[in-house]
Amino acid sequence: MLKNIIKGILSTQPHEISCDECFDELDRFTEMVLSGKSAAEAMPLVQDHLNRCTDCHEEFEVLLSALRAMA
User: Fold this and answer.
1) What secondary structure does DSSP assign to 9-37, as a single string?
2) How far apart are the first and last CA of the chain?
3) What pLDDT sits at residue 7?
4) What are phi and psi of 15, to 5 degrees?
5) What is the pTM of this model?
6) 8 Å CB contact between 40 and 47
7) Which DSSP category does 43 fall into?
8) 49 C-beta neighbours (distance < 10 Å), count
9) Which tens digits make up the pLDDT trace of 1-30?
10) CA 62, CA 34: separation in Å to the nearest integer?
11) 13 CA to centre of own chain
């Protein structure tokens, strides 16, 4: 656990978004992924947050799976 905390501190970026900000953009990010667009390039702060935050990444995966199932 301590390793993860230190890794998180050392990988902090000058520009980051919070979980709330990520959640606000998650639907748009997911729609881009589903349409084959490069969401990571278009929304790098969201991608960075998803790479760092397990909770938000799980929300993204659930949303992505649900939308794929509906398609």
Assistant:
1) HHT--SS---HHHHHHHHHHHHHHHHTT-
2) 39
3) 62
4) -125, 115
5) 0.78
6) yes
7) -
8) 24
9) 777 666 665 566 668 999 999 999 999 999
10) 13
11) 15
